[in-house]
Design goal:
EamA_dom, disordered C terminus, mainly alpha, 0% strand, transmembrane, DMT family transporter, 75% helix, AA-Vitamin_Transporters
């Protein structure tokens, strides 16, 4: 299994995962007009599961009951989070969707803080999130905002369950098996929508890139990072998600940043850097023997 593992420090791993996810989100938004949120999510998770199973080749019969109890809810949370986020992304701008989704991990970071300085970093990141919201509410609707907030709740659950899963199952196997269960809450909607009947070779290629950048690479990187980072530190580092989303929208979707959004970028970067530099050293959850 070690042949599939990247030997990188935890913090660069998280940053790489963030960039990958937001690039994938830009690809997903281009698929929505044809495939819709349900069809796009189904293709992303289905192809991701197939690729991971081929690469990792986990032996499901070897899994112990404790590993099943960890990986099944992890996968279900993963699939639900992605489906809700794509439903939100189909209605509201990328930067806003990620900003609202981040309320989940931000709340988790605040609940897990034990030092007053951690509250400062969370507050600074929160200020940046407020500033990054598009002025005037252009392109916003309440259902889309609600879906993004629900995805944020699932994101917080995913962080907690991901750390629990990383403690009992090596990263690559955890993601591969978890992705199988991630498909369960999504595929029925994708099939019912009928959008998968409109697939073309070009759309299938884009879906493959989406699966790579939005699922295979980032979730594998995140499960590795969660082996050595605390839930609190991981959550605050994820404050870079709205920044990456805004920059991705600017570069790939021609969405321009306002002055207040650039200020938000500075706030969130400082908060993330402060959390990283001041995080206490911790014992890794997994020793990395496999």
């Amino acid at each position: 299994m070690s042949r599939f593992r990247l030997s990188l420090p935890a913090i660069p791993v998280v940053l790489l995962a963030i960039l990958s996810v937001q690039g994938g989100a830009a690809i997903a938004k281009g698929l929505f007009p044809v495939l819709g949120a349900a069809g796009t999510t189904s293709l992303r998770i289905g192809l991701s599961a197939l690729v991971l199973l081929l690469l990792v080749r986990p032996n499901l019969r070897e899994l112990r009951p404790a590993q099943w109890r960890a990986v099944v809810p992890y996968g279900l949370a993963l699939g639900t989070m992605n489906f809700l986020f794509y439903c939100a992304l189909a209605r509201i701008p990328l930067g806003l969707a990620v900003t609202l989704e981040f309320v989940g991990p931000l709340g988790l970071a605040l609940l897990g803080s034990r030092r007053w300085v951690d509250v400062v970093w969370v507050a600074l990141a929160g200020a940046g999130i407020v500033l990054i919201t598009p002025p005037g509410g252009h392109g916003i609707d309440l259902p889309g905002m609600g879906l993004a907030l629900a995805a944020g709740l699932c994101w917080a659950v995913y962080i907690v369950l991901g750390r629990r899963t990383a403690a009992v199952l090596p990263g690559p196997r955890a993601v591969a098996v978890g992705m199988l269960f991630a498909a369960l809450p999504v595929l029925p909607f994708g099939i019912a929508s009928g959008s998968l009947l409109h697939l073309t070779p070009h759309l299938l290629l884009l879906a493959g890139l989406l699966a790579l950048f939005s699922s295979v690479l980032p979730f594998s990187l995140e499960i590795q990072a969660l082996q050595s980072l605390s839930t609190r530190t991981f959550s605050i580092l994820m404050s870079l998600e709205p920044v990456a989303a805004a920059l991705s929208g600017w570069l790939l979707l021609n969405e321009r940043l306002t002055l207040s959004q650039w200020v938000a970028v500075g706030c969130i970067v400082v908060a993330s850097a402060g959390a990283t530099l001041n995080a206490p050293a911790e014992k890794p959850v997994i020793s990395g023997e496999e």
